[in-house]
Amino acid sequence: MFVLSKVSGQDALSQSVVIYPLNYTACVVALTASGQKLILYKVEYNELIYLESIDFDEKVLAITKIKIDGQEAVVYLDDQSQIGILFIDNEFCTTIKILAKLSSTGQSKIIDSPVYMVADPAANTRFIAFHIFCEVVHVFHFNSISSVDDILGKTPNNSVSSTRRKNRRSDLGKWWSLESISVGRINVKQIAILEKPTNTMAISYRDSNSNFFTRCLPVKGIDPVHAKQPIIEFEQEYLCLIIPIQVGGYIVLSTFSIFYFPDDQIQYMSTSSEINDIAIIQSHVKLHCIKELTKPGNGISEENYVSFEIIDKSRFLIIAESGRSYLLFTDMEISSKTTIIINQMTMVSLGEVTIPYYNGLSHIAGDLFFQSSQFSRSVLFSVLPEKPHIHIRAYIESSPPVLDIKDGCGQGVEELYTCQGSWEGSELRKYGAVQHTPELLETKTIDMQIERLRIVNSTVMVYNIDGDSVALETHNLMPKITHLKIESNVLDYYKDPGFQCCVTRSSLLVNGKTMVNESFIYSSVVPEISTVVAVSDTKSIHVQSKNYEFAFESEKLKEITSIDAIHVGNGALLILATDWSGDYRIWKVVNKKAKLIYSGEMKDQTFVLDSAVVQSGENDIIAFMSTNNGSLHQLLIHLTEKRVDNVNFTEQYVSDVPCFLRKYKNNVLVFNFKHLVALKKDELSGFFFKKYIHVPKLPLADVCFATEEEVLIGYQNGRIDKVRIVLPSQVVSHQSLFSNKLYLKCLPVPLSKFLVGVVLDCSKDSINTQLHLVNTDSFENLSIFEFDEPSGVQVVDICLIQDWQNEKAHKDGLFVCLTSSTEFPLYVFGIEESRIVCLNRGAILGIDLSPDVKLNSISLFDQEEQTYLCSGNIVVLVQLDIDENFQWTLVPRSAVHSPAFVVSQWSNENVAYLADAIYGAFSSNVNKSEKHNAMKLVKIDTDSMGNQITAITAVRSKNYTYTIIGDALGNVNLIQTDSNDSSICRVHKFNIGDQINCIFALGRKKSWGAQICVVGTVSGGLFVLNNTDLNGCNDSLVEFAARNHLELLDCDGESVNNNEKSQCKEIVSDTVIARVLSHIIANSSEFSQTYSNLYSNRNLLQSVHFECNSL
């Protein structure tokens, strides 16, 4: 069976509005780019607090805000031409009502531009205008609506009528009506409702010749009146925004200028004597004025303005496509009925906000605003009078379209890198092994090379390698003059009223009196019951409490490497001990008796260097064991009063260097000299996820807890930091590197801390390429390579050159860039001293690339012979000769025409997999003996996918080859072929609900199976497809999903479009497993009776869920 787990949801935001429910708390309502979900947040103390997500069966195309009887609400329009309304009450409970459904008979929907929807800004909304069908703008009028109850259909006794108003034809025209206004064959860019004249809307549009116009349309007007409205053409101007203003008329912002068109009553316009940069045009078409924006020295560059919000009658906040914000200030005075004076019209640059979604800007209150973004973070921000003017208060992470995916290539570290975004803005993301920056509370540097830290009461003792010590106050790290001196040979020290216990390397002392004279090697303090546990070099384990002391022998352990203990209630202890051979034992100590309750051993010559045991629920404990190979083992044990009832186990890679553990109550830190990792519990599985913590000054010396959240970090150079660690709630976090350019491709370099990003810049007349070198630890840009000559070089793909013979010459990596150039299609680069160096650019000997030849992809085909596969409208093999100054040569007879155009490829071990944009998927197997024969493209059967394939990859395992193909409808075909007999083949089909943009092979082995591949979608979704044996749980999971109304994955997009959903039972979403685990936690006894098979396999389900969501 296969499990589809989610790394990142398809929650990129598009449109948003801010409304005030009856409780007068601002609420952000944001529509996801997929149109399937509205997400609600409340604004509280400059924070965005998530409320809920509302899923829709139909795709919502547009939303706007209305006000009825003092209550604000959200109106939406979906792809079934339904107009709905969303109310939010004073407790943030939501109610949705369908108002009407438009007839699409004889009409065609617009497909080349967004759907625009805007509401009348009056105190009580009178109408909504929208453009969903070609050649017509519709106006939805609210007729005599006096309250929200009229829309909800509430009866006088305050209950909702059982008959829906949308189904009652007699209601038509009573409280709403629809007006259609013909606008001709134009591309509407914006609709704006004017304040004056009333009942008038202005539209901007582009005609078939790409010329821009504006035009005013009366609402509920008569056709001859429409014809009299002037149509204003803008020559050599790119229109951006129409902004209604309170004095009447509207402002038009273009990329170069500001235009103001007054109300038709105004016949005369003048400027004050101080104004000399505004030109008044007394045109026969329309009186207006113009101010040029992009004059030298005014601080305003050429911009495409996409979002605005009216602050008051004279101030307007503007956001440009680049993410920069501006304040537009106007001062206009009406001196008579027919005359207006322009005193000021100025635009000031404020600073960068975010890459905006069109008209996604909302004014919340005072200086607080919200801007939604599809391609970057949506932000809550303030505009301040002093520089810096923009202050980001809070943000919502977006999920921009996934353009490229790569595996981290780290030694054991499971990372994913993605390029996400569009031409408007993008980001380079890192998933897994993300470094979280803690809050720095205090810092101190002492003149000592730190080896160890120890906290005793309110004192932190700092030791060097010679045993010298310095005492500091824990709360502020200031020197402490009077303190208890703890020598460096002390393993543990504990003190409470009437009891003082000290374990040294040579003895155990109680209240200053020697109780045991032995050589002690490890110890652990259990403060809840005033007990100290210590182990001697003779393997004798001593338990010393306030009231008693006893010892027992750990006979089976050969040489103990660590010990820890925990209180489990009623005075009982659990003691964990490990040894060099990989064995470990757990005893329960009650009334001076030790009972062995569990034992185990590590595999593959692995042994434990350090351990910690903590409580993990009422009857659960979890033992952490750090091994010699840098991994962390977790042993989850469910205890009953008499025995161990259930045991589960998992392993995670942490570092290439062995780690130590520190704990405080149920909090655990894992560290070595180069990494610091905090652990966060996953409530569903019971295991703990690792969260890497950013440390600024390596190497680390030691860490210790001051409180549950506050940690002291000691560095070998003498620096000590006191920090607060607050871990993010999401299971898989990510880091982002933002750009207003396009991150197209990324390439992690193995065995280094480098990643190369391909960045396209279209801000100039041509598309230019940059190569960014990024440090994968700090996720910062180290250097940028510019393609100077020839100008306009466009990189289309990037590939690693895996040649270990040249490791010394270019020790940090070699890679090749495929470009659109026919003269120099291939550039070879090296990474030297944190810089990208061009080693050669060249043609492909043996082939003449004419302008008609377009290459789109490159990948390694045969590492031993340094052969690479290139494809586009041809498919060709090329060979790299590194010794001959990186010369490229065509492999004879390998070039063949593509069926149409290859949009995606994957090659490995002399097999090529190709996704053609029109004709489907193909493969080509080229044996070494046939290397110089013509490539033969064999069609892969994908009959259910149509002709819109977008991505392909393949993974080989011991028993199977998996070919994974995705298309524009969201369909994924997983073709499972027997490695020994290709005729044995099985196809698994499912639909992910969104266009597949890219698929990348993983092939990561897990204890329960393997991670096959990762899939990225156009709405920013990132999913991992896992292969596992669920031990006969398949049918039980399907049954559970059906009973609990959980949707299984649909088989294909065509069935979805036809409303005939067929469901894939071989591939289950991890959300089903997560729901099973949550039911077990809520009521295990009832669940065990209803779903006995799932309950008996709960350990497996916990492990699968945990590892499916681990990166």
TrEMBL record:
<protein>
    <recommendedName>
        <fullName>RSE1/DDB1/CPSF1 C-terminal domain-containing protein</fullName>
    </recommendedName>
</protein>
<dbReference type="Pfam" id="PF03178">
    <property type="entry name" value="CPSF_A"/>
</dbReference>
<dbReference type="InterPro" id="IPR004871">
    <property type="entry name" value="RSE1/DDB1/CPSF1_C"/>
</dbReference>
<dbReference type="GO" id="GO:0003676">
    <property type="term" value="F:nucleic acid binding"/>
</dbReference>
<dbReference type="InterPro" id="IPR015943">
    <property type="entry name" value="WD40/YVTN_repeat-like_dom_sf"/>
</dbReference>
<dbReference type="GO" id="GO:0005634">
    <property type="term" value="C:nucleus"/>
</dbReference>
<feature type="domain" description="RSE1/DDB1/CPSF1 C-terminal">
    <location>
        <begin position="770"/>
        <end position="1025"/>
    </location>
</feature>
